[in-house]
Design brief:
single chain, 206 residues, alpha/beta, Maf protein, 6-stranded mixed β-sheet, 6 strands, 30% helix, globular
Length: 206
């Protein structure tokens, strides 16, 4: 089995225009003295996410950012998979929010499609890809189980955070992420933080 590649460069582009994701990854990368710049700051385009899996879309975003910037790129694709909805919205989680990325509308759709279904089990899934200009990439997956609630609770985090309660908690991600220490509380459970820790073990820790 080939060993993973260590990241030795000092600068990395995040293949996302989402300010919430940029802030989250900046905090996750802070211990490694790596400068993280967002795709929006570099005026990079947002590629069409035509993949049917999380890894497909993460790779699409990573290679687009690498090509546009000439820098190594970190991309994630993540989503909320609701069991009673057959795993939807899943890889189409952002699409449910529409072109304006209105996650209030997306959360309302989850609620309406569940109707009176008693099964509220769900999971957040994240796949991260770290890609280099020479064509090499590393990937990692993170997952956290839990359940969805209604109405939305909490003003922290982003996306579907206000309707998702992780296993072992009574608060939603939207509540956990509020205030001083909120990032650390959410990161205890977060699918994205779990994926990052797995990737960091391979690529960032020396």
């Amino acid at each position: 089995m080939m060993s993973s590649r260590r990241f030795t460069e000092g600068k990395l582009v995040l293949a996302s225009h989402n300010p919430g994701k940029l802030a989250e990854f900046q905090r996750l990368l802070a211990p490694y003295a790596i400068q993280l710049v967002g795709a929006e700051e570099l005026n990079l385009p947002e590629p069409a996410e035509t993949g049917t899996t999380f890894i497909d879309n993460a790779l699409i975003k990573a290679w687009s950012a690498v090509e546009g910037s000439g820098l190594p790129a970190l991309a994630d694709d993540s989503g909320l998979a609701v069991r009673a909805l057959g795993g939807e919205p899943g890889v189409y989680s952002a699409d449910w929010a529409g072109p304006k990325r209105d996650f209030g509308t997306a959360m309302q759709r989850v609620h309406e499609e569940l109707r009176d279904d008693a099964d509220r089990a769900a999971a957040f899934v994240a796949v991260l890809v770290l890609a280099w200009p020479d064509g090499h990439y590393e990937s990692a997956e993170g997952r956290v189980g839990g359940h969805v609630v209604w109405p939305p609770r909490g003003t922290g985090g982003f996306g579907y955070d206000p309707i998702f309660v992780p296993e072992g908690e009574t608060q939603t991600f939207g509540e956990l992420a509020v205030g001083e220490g909120g990032f650390a509380r959410k990161a205890t459970y977060s699918h994205r933080a779990r994926a990052f820790r797995a990737l960091a073990e391979k690529c960032f820790k020396h």
